[in-house]
Design brief:
The structure holds 2 protein chains of 2 kinds. Chain A contains 9 helices and no strands. Chain A is an all-alpha fold. Chain A has 2 domains: 11-59, no CATH class; 93-177, no CATH class. In chain A, helix 1 crosses helix 3 (42-59). By secondary structure, chain B is mainly alpha-helical. In chain B, helix 2 runs antiparallel to helix 8, helix 7 (116-125) crosses helix 10 and helix 8 (129-139) packs across helix 10 (156-177). Chain B is built from 11 helices and no strands. Helix content of chain B is 74%, strand content 0%. The model of chain B is unreliable at 88-113 (pLDDT under 50). Chain B has 2 domains: 2-82, RNA polymerase sigma factor, region 2, helix turn helix motif (Rna Polymerase Sigma Factor, Chain: A, Orthogonal Bundle); 93-184, Winged helix-like DNA-binding domain superfamily/Winged helix DNA-binding domain (Arc Repressor Mutant, subunit A). Classes of the chains: A mainly alpha, B mainly alpha. The A-B interface holds A 15-16, 19, 25, 50-51, 53-55, 57-67, 70-71, 73-75, 77-79, 81, 83, 85-88 and B 7-10, 12-13, 15-16, 19-20, 23-25, 27-28, 31, 41, 44-45, 48-49, 52-57, 116-117, 119-121, 124, 135-136, 139-140, 145, 160, 163-164, 167-168, 170-171, 174, 185.
């Protein structure tokens, strides 16, 4: 023992080394030294046999089995709670950007149309604010059609609903991270 | 990872493959903490439901089993805290003695009829939850010491020492309660 390891080992230490050997966790130089000791030293050999029996018994340990309905119960519970998987994206972001782009286009169009109506050269225009000028513009050419008005109203409502959903998702995400 | 991708895309049924694959491992680990099979089955089901909810959090930087066993451990500890039961630690020798007295007492006829495998299984059930868990994860969970350390929230060296001690305690249990079978071995 003294030749292989620098100091004689206590029984506990022998056990530690043998477990490392059995588990394949010993260092390379120690592996061959322990192997030699197991073959040549009676104490090491006896202890090795003892520990190997325990190790082999543990390898035979069987897993416990739950009831036959286990998987079914889990899947039913998931379906019952209507748990949505933590998917990274529920909605295609291109659709969201598309709708957002449409509304931005509509708003910008209004602004451009309004600004285009303004007569910047008159003294009255210079004294009033830009916003007043935009609101004073004549929009009847665009909004004199009932159908168009209804269509625009619907789009505004849809846009607000989508915006509300987006804000809710954002809120849930922030709460989850918190 | 393919199955996980399918589940994340919305294929709920694909998750049943994962449940079938890991249910025995999860149930066994839960039983190391919770001795009642009914409670253990309920907790094991909770583990899979929690895992389903947070599947997107699994980044794939460790084995799925390692991640799942971590969820299992935390779920068990939470359950025991709610039930206000004490989770015994490895080094609490006094508690160990109590566990001995609670878990002992098999009749001579029962002992005689036990096979070697059942003997080891019964001996493991007599260990503390930490000891039983580290043995189960090492021998049945296909986890390395580093992965077990991650699951149990300990340092790898501490897990190595715990495994060594757990095996020593198991041997003592087997000698104390199944001495006839041990001699025959």
């Amino acid at each position: 023992m003294k030749d292989t390891f620098n100091v004689p080992l206590e029984e506990d230490e022998i056990e530690v080394k043998l477990w490392e050997y059995i588990d394949g966790l010993a260092k390379a130089d120690e592996m061959s030294a322990i192997e030699k000791l197991v073959q040549e030293n009676a104490e090491w050999k006896a202890k090795y046999q003892e520990l190997l029996e325990v190790h082999e018994s543990l390898n035979l340990v069987e897993l416990e089995q739950p009831s036959l309905r286990f998987t079914k119960n889990v899947m039913e519970e998931i379906a019952r709670l209507q748990i949505a998987p933590a998917a990274k994206q529920y909605i295609n972001s291109k659709i969201i950007w598309g709708i957002g782009g449409f509304f931005i286009t509509v708003i910008v169009s209004f602004l451009v149309y309004g600004l285009a109506q303004i007569d910047w050269s008159t003294s009255q225009s210079v004294n009033t604010g830009v916003l007043d000028k935009i609101t004073d513009a004549d929009y009847t050419k665009v909004f004199n059609n009932t159908f168009v008005n209804v269509f625009i109203m619907l789009n505004v409502v849809l846009g607000l609903m989508l915006f509300d959903r987006y804000l809710n998702d954002k809120k849930k995400k922030l709460m989850k991270e918190a | 990872m393919d199955i996980i991708s399918l589940v994340l895309k919305g294929d709920q049924n694909a998750y049943s493959i994962l449940v079938d694959r890991y249910k025995n491992y999860v149930f066994t680990i839960v039983l190391r903490y919770i001795k009642s099979r009914e409670d253990a089955e309920e907790v094991a089901q909770d583990v899979f439901i929690k895992a389903y909810r947070s599947l997107a959090a699994f980044k794939g930087d460790s084995k799925f089993s390692t991640w799942l066993y971590t969820v299992t451990t935390t779920t068990c500890i939470t359950f025991l805290r709610k039930k206000k039961l004490e989770v015994h630690s490895l080094d609490n020798e006094r508690v160990f003695e109590v566990a001995d007295s609670v878990d002992s007492g098999m009749s001579a006829n029962q002992i005689e009829q036990k096979s070697k495998v059942n003997m080891v299984n019964e001996a493991i059930k007599m260990l503390s939850p930490d000891d039983a868990q580290v043995i189960t994860l090492f021998y049945k969970g296909e986890q390395t010491l580093e992965e077990i350390a991650q699951i149990m929230g300990k340092e790898p060296n501490a897990v190595k020492v715990q495994l060594h001690r757990a095996r020593g305690r198991l041997k003592e249990k087997m000698e104390k309660y199944f001495s006839a079978e041990v001699r025959d071995i």
